[in-house]
Amino acid sequence: MNILLLLKAVADSEASIRPASDGKSVKLDGVSWVLNPYDEYAVEEALKIREADGAGDVFAVSFGGDEVPKVLRTALAMGVDRAVHVKGALSFDPLATAKILAAAIKDMKYDLILCGKQAIDHDHHTVAVMVAELLDLPSVSVVTKIERAGDKIRCEREVEGGTEVVETSTPCLITCQKGLNEPRYASLKGIMAAKKKPLDEVAAAAVTSEVEALEVKSRPPRQPGEIIGQGVEAVPLLVKKLREEAKVI
Question: Which end of the chain has fewer CB within 10 Å, C or N?
Answer without folding.
Answer: C
